[in-house]
Amino acid sequence: MSMEGKTRRITIDPITRLEGHGKIEIFLDESGNVERAYFQVPELRGFEKFVEGRPAEEMPQITSRICGVCPTAHHMASTKALDALYQVDPPPVAKKIRELFYNTFMVEDHALHFYFLGGPDFVVGPSAPPQERNVLGVIAKVGVEVGQKVIAMRRKLREILAAVGGKPVHPVLGLPGGVAKRITPEVQKQIRAVAAEAVGFAQFTLEVFHDVVLQNTDYVNLILSDVFTHRTYYMGLVDQDNRVNFYDGWIRVVSPDGKEWARFQAHQYLEVVAEHVEPWSYVKFCYLKPIGWRGFIDGADSGVYCVAPLARLNASEGMATPLAQEAYREFYATLGGKPVHHTLANHWARVVELLYAAERMKELADDPELTDPHVRTLPTATPREGVGVVEAPRGTLIHHYQTDERGIIQKANLIVATQNNAARIAMSVEKAAKGLISGHRIPEGILNMVEMAFRAYDPCHACATHSLPGNMPLFIRVRDPKGNTVATLRRDFDGSIHRDA
Amino acid sequence: MDCGGHGGVHQEGEALAESGGSGARIRILCLGNDLLADDAFGPAVGEELRRSIPEEVEVITTQAAGFSLLEEVLGATHLLVIDTILTGRNPPGKVFTLRAEEVEVFPGNSPHYVGLFEALELGRRVCLPVPEETVILAVEAADCTTVGGPMHLRVRAAIPAVVRLAQGIVQGWRKGGARQVS
């Protein structure tokens, strides 16, 4: 770190920090063209050891505390894993409260993502300089009033999350067999009002998407471009009619031509999902076990699949609510039918899902059974093993616990969205790198293209959620066929680009 | 934009400010996760400060990130952030005093990691009552990703120094002498 001059700019050298963390490794062949490229994401270490020997009922709190970004998704997946572990079926109202709570969270998270987090890439525009691709650029584009509207909606949603879940950020709602607290008629009234407003807000957001994004020909062309297209399998949770569901149902996988390839319950996941390890990366790449690992390649013969909003829409046959179903129909009509293989279409898919989450929130809020006080079935069975699944905002999330007869954790396994997407992220980074590097020529433009390629997946980095300055700089290392470093490129926080050869 | 009305603050900002925090004008935000090795530094300092800081100053300990932090600080005039930093060029335990305006905001590797500073600037742009002055006390960390890992000895050893620095900064603000912090 250096602090220079009167205004004291801070520059943080990324190299040591990124060693073994978020970095891109590019391997060249003898001709100086890209042979292979990897994007490495940091992972938490020691999780399994830490939870070993702890009571299983602590897991919804522990797992939600580990993640500072989407603790609600971990809390709910963990709670459902406890249902399975204790072989207990929650009463109908408990399931409704959980689903209502979860959809409220999805409205909040998807809205935040659309406007402020993903917005820099597609509202400000992919070709804008990094200095402008941030939330301030988004506000400049959509207007201060829209920013205020988003923040106001978010506040109301968080009040609902606090009223139902105990706390807005780290909920204490889920228990094996139900929930900790009933919903009173007063709280139901509050939820109904906010849910109705959320539906209007989601419709407004769809209009914003049409006006700001779809009217921008450059961006639409980028969505459809080959660089951001991969033909892989898609995974997502669906209800009994194969419609998108965030809270419960079957995990459905469709093939690159959109046909159903698998439909299974969470506890069967190990029959379908396996993990591949590469010598140059500590990331475990998930793939479809029956197909096998064939490398980082597209197509029906490759076990690579992906998750997240686009994958959920592809893996389903529609949305369970009317306005979202209409938005779903328009999505596929505009993008040329199912499945859509363009990674950047994730942003549009997220708005379709936002509408569904708001409508589903309203349906559940209006349910007369919601205030039923019978919110828990006490578990009585001896625990042994349990698997729980939800759709986190960024994709399918699985929690798997094994315990002794006292419910003490012997083994825990979590599969998070970024692991499901890891292989396809690597393929996208590689495609971007291949498009720009040839014959040992390594242009600086690769930094932006590679960044766009992996940001589209919104990957989860275990660390850097708290540590200053909050964002990691970009670091690319290029190696020859023998593994020797031939060049490094990095972009620091101040936007300066450094090259070492 | 001219924020106008309500003393220069949008009415939504007032509603937000009322819905979060204690209403304290001076707040200390201790960031970090006590389950993640050196990331426990912020919460550990927070625990010490609660014993020694005047009641009218609010100490908030949280492992939340990005926009979730915005609601915690609305309505405060002065904000002190306690956090870890990973420069990789300094020994673990080295303490930095920074001002928010010195930290540049750039897109990160993932859209869902938006920093506190970006969130504060957003709040300012949409006329929310964000703090007028933000100071950061950061300690160089060695490891923030090992679940259940211990804090590095030098990071732990920095706790008393950071507590004293925090007390001094808060004392300066209480006397109306924010300029004393540099």
If you had to describe this structure to a student in words, what would you say it looks like?
The complex is a heterodimer of chains A (501) and B (182). Chain A has 501 residues and is an alpha+beta fold. Helices cover 41% and strands 18% of the residues of chain A. Among the domains of chain A are: 2-45 and 418-500, no CATH class; 89-229 and 342-378, Cytochrome-c3 Hydrogenase, chain B (Orthogonal Bundle). Chain A is built from 16 helices and 18 strands. In chain A, the strands form six sheets. A five-stranded mixed β-sheet of chain A has the order 4-3-16-17-18. A four-stranded mixed β-sheet of chain A has the order 9-8-7-12. In chain A, strands 13-14-15 form a three-stranded antiparallel β-sheet. The longest helix of chain A has 30 residues, at 185-214. Mean pLDDT of chain B is 81; it is low at 107-112 and 178-182. The longest helix of chain B is centred in the C-terminal third of the chain and has 16 residues, at 159-174. Chain B is of the alpha/beta class and 182 residues long. Chains A and B meet through helix 1, helix 2, helix 3, helix 5 and helix 7 of A and helix 1, strand 3 and helix 4 of B.
Quickly count the domains of chain B.
1
Instruction: Report the sheet-strand fraction of chain A.
Output: 15-25%
In the sheet with the most strands of chain A, the strands line up as 4-3-16-17-18
Distance between the termini of chain A: 23 Å
The CATH topology of chain B is Rossmann fold
Strand order of the largest sheet of chain B: 2-1-3-5-4
By CATH reckoning, the class of chain B would read: Alpha Beta
**Over the alpha carbons, how many angstroms does the gyration radius of chain A reach?**
23 Å
Give the biggest sheet of chain B.
5 strands, mixed
Helical amount of chain A: 40-55%
Largest chain interface and its two residue counts? Answer: A-B, 78 and 64 residues
